[in-house]
Amino acid sequence: MTLALGGMTRAELMERISSQELNEWMAFYTLEPFGADAYYLGHAITASTVANANRGKNTKAMKVQDFMPTFEKKEQGVDEMLNIASMMTAAMGGTIDIKEADGG
Fold first, then answer.
1. pTM for the full predicted model
2. Alpha-carbon distance 37 to 11, whole Å?
3. How far apart are CA 40 and CA 20, in angstroms?
């Protein structure tokens, strides 16, 4: 995201925008992806168009998704999600009360 917002570092980004604005950008990204995913999609559209224009009469048409790169995405466990949430909270200047979080 920092690259898409002018190439600033994460620290610069956190200094310049509020956590609310960061959440708004993250929500916007889910609706209108930008950055690498958008570039890959453009190239995938071009590749599928070229492939389909040159396919044989009895050959199945290729889909745009056939040309999108896939990267390994592992499932996150609860501990990993909590660790990431803790890091994001700390990065935004917040703290977590462990006793309250554990229900104690």
1. 0.47
2. 23
3. 29
